[in-house]
Amino acid sequence: MTSTTTSHPGSVLESQAPGPLKPPGQRRAKDRRLGQGQLGEGRMAALLLSPTAVVLALVIAYPLISAIHQSLYADQTGIDADGFVTEGETFVGLGNYLNLLTGDAGDRFLNAFANTTFFTLTTVSLETILGLILALAMNRAFRGRSFLRASILIPWAVPTAVSGLLWRWIFQSDGIANNLLGSEILWTAEGAASKIAVIVAEVWKTAPFIGLLVLAGMQVIPEEVYEAAKIDGAGWWRQLGSITLPLVKPTLLVAVLFRLLDALRMFDLPFVLIGPGKDSVETLSMLAWDESNQLRYGSASAFAVILFLYVAVVAVVFVKVLGADVTGTKELRLARKKTRSQKAGPAS
Fold first, then answer.
1. What's the pTM?
2. Cα–Cα 20 to 30 A to 7, which of 65, 97, 322, 348?
3. Do the strands 73-79 and 85-91 form a parallel or antiparallel pair, or are they unpaired?
4. Is residue 133 assigned to a domain?
5. Is there a domain that residue 31 lies in?
6. Which residues are CB-neighbours of 170 under 8 A, at least 6 positions away?
7. In tens digits, what is the pLDDT along the chain, a chain of 348 residues?
8. CA-to-CA distance for 16 and 53, rounded, in angstroms?
9. Residue 319: how many CA atoms within 13 Å on its side-chain side?
10. What number of other Cβ atoms are within 10 A of residue 219's Cβ?
11. Under a CB-based contact definition with an 8 Å cutoff, are residues 297 and 228 in contact?
């Protein structure tokens, strides 16, 4: 005897069947409400950020516009029609910028530009290598790790002017450096020795900055990843090249970018350690300061504008070419895309 199973309304099979699709009008209304909600969130975000935008406009936009305007003028002294001496500012257009490429001012500018680039590339490269080594050392579990982390932070916490005075005492003719080397090198005079002194002091002070940021990136790497690599037979070097460095790359790029922008504006350390007016260590910031100190505000503003453009170009190239996610926009886009897909899933 055979039995036949019939499906009745309200049975389990019918309850598991997908419901009817919503009409297009309801879907459009839902999308419209979602768009209005996102628009409201955008307006609220703009309202909350407006005080910060006003402050940035006052401390960044206004000085920049003022510097550009000042760079188009030059202080000149002359004699009027009555034979009296007159002083004032004269509009020279791009004259201050053209003077950067000719004569003694041009030679001094090119020297400062070369020094700035050399110090930036050298110090940031050494700081990146040393900072990565420090991060790897601080990330390992051993007795005294907390003391090591605190001691590494000390150079970064010391003010730059104090650090310059400290290293000036070390690099004196009868200082610790010459006693250890058994020589009498004039570290704070003109020449290659002064460049080495600035590089050593700068790397000592700022390498912990990169080390601490890279350490923060290492702390978020799951331990299960390393355990799986050990099971697969990967050694320490293989784990470093295949796991650690790729996963800390975003943090490392941001740290290197910050250091690049800071090194391009180098002023206080060579100023205190070596002194002003030294061609071997004069940077663009020091050159702009010297021009303003001589009351040549037009040329000083031109130097400052050139330095600003240099820093801006380096930042844009670094972000576009190497993909440093400074503002977190990549993560924000991924989060928004994930949210949209989750909202669109039930509707479809």
1. 0.75
2. 348
3. antiparallel
4. yes
5. no
6. 176, 177
7. 444 444 444 444 444 444 455 555 555 555 565 555 566 677 777 788 888 888 888 888 888 888 888 888 887 655 555 555 556 678 888 888 888 888 777 888 999 999 999 999 999 999 999 999 988 888 876 676 778 777 888 888 888 889 999 999 999 888 898 898 888 888 888 889 999 999 999 999 999 989 988 988 888 888 888 888 888 888 888 888 888 888 888 888 888 988 999 999 999 899 999 988 888 999 999 999 998 888 888 888 999 999 999 999 988 888 887 665 555 455 545 545 655 565 555 544
8. 54
9. 14
10. 11
11. no
What are 330's two structure tokens? 């990549």
pLDDT of residue 346: 52
User: Cβ distance 307 to 284 under 8 Å?
Assistant: yes
Task: With respect to residue 259, please indicate whether it lies within any of the assigned structural domains.
Answer: yes
Interhelix angle 62-70/297-322, nearest 10 degrees: 130
- Residue 171 CA to residue 287 CA, distance in Å, equals 24
Nearest to residue 260, comparing CAs of 88, 116, 156, 53?
116
155/160 Cα distance (integer angstroms) = 9
Domain with 277 in it: what CATH number? 1.10.3720.10
Distances (CA, A) of 152 to 28, 44, 88, 249: 58, 41, 53, 22
Give residue 220's pLDDT: 86
- Where are the alpha helices (H) located in 220-325, listed in sequence order? 223-231, 236-239, 245-264, 268-273, 284-293, 297-322
Rg (CA), the chain: 31
Q: Which residue has the tokens 């006052």?
A: 58
Q: What is the total residue count of the chain? A: 348
CA distance 249 to 242: 11
Number of structural domains in the chain: 1
Task: Provide the domain limits for residue 186.
Answer: 109-339
Residue 33's CB: how many other CB atoms inside 10 A?
10
Place of tokens 């700035």: 116
Q: Are 284 and 116 in contact (CB under 8 A)?
A: yes
Pairwise CA distance, residues 143 & 140, whole Å:
10
Written as six digits, the tokens of 336 are: 């928004």
Query: For residue 141, what are its two tokens?
Result: 């579990």
